[in-house]
Known about the structure:
The structure is a single chain. The chain is an all-alpha fold. The chain has a single domain, classed as Vanadium-containing Chloroperoxidase, domain 1, CATH 1.20.144. The radius of gyration is 17 Å and the shape is globular. The model has no long low-confidence stretch (mean pLDDT 88). It contains 8 helices and 2 strands, in the order E-H-H-H-H-H-H-H-H-E. The chain has a two-stranded antiparallel sheet with strand order 1-2.
Amino acid sequence: xxxxxxxxxxxxxxxxxxxxxxxxxxxxxxxxxxxxxxxxxxxxxxxxxxxxxxxxxxxxxxxxxxxxxxxxxxxxxxxxxxxxxxxxxxxxxxxxxxxxxxxxxxxxxxxxxxxxxxxxxxxxxxxxxxxxxxxxxxxxxxxxxxxxxxxxxxxxxxxxxxxxxxxxxxxxxxxxxxxxxxxxxxxxxxxxxxxxxxxxxxx
Length: 203
C-alpha cells in the first residue's frame, strides 16, 4: 500500500532554501560563489552543455511521457497516472517561473558588471535570470515522483541538481537563481502531490 503523506520537514527545508537563494541574490554573494563554482567544477568540452539539456522543456516532457509509457506497458495504472500528472506539474511550475521572471527581470550573468540588480517588468531574454526555470521544473518533477521511487531518491535528486549547476556553468544563471528555483520547484511538486494525490493509494 502506497499512501502519500505531507512531510513538514521537507517544506521547512524548502523555506530555508528559498531564503538562502534570496540571500545569495540580495547580498551580492552570487558573484563570489559563481566564480568559485566555475573555477573548481569545470568539465572538459561540452559536457555541461549536454547536462543542461536535462532541464530543457522538450526533454522533460519527453521524459514524463516516456515514464508514463513504460509504466503503462508494465500494467502499473496508478504509476502511469502519476507520471501523466507530471505534465501539469511541469506546466504549472513553468508558469510560476515565468511570472517571477517577468516581474523581477533580473539580468543574466553575461550582463554583469553593467547590470546586476532587477530591472522590473523588462521582458527580454537577457533579463529573465531569476529564478532558473530549468532547475525549478526539474525539482518540481522529481519531488512529485520521489514517493513512487524511494530507492531512486539520490539519483533523481542528483540529476535535478546537475541540471541546476549546469545552468551556472554555462553562464545562464547566478547561483541564487538556481538555489531559489530548486527549492521553489521542490515545494511546488510536493504541494501538488499532497493536495491532489494524497488521498490516492495503490493496491
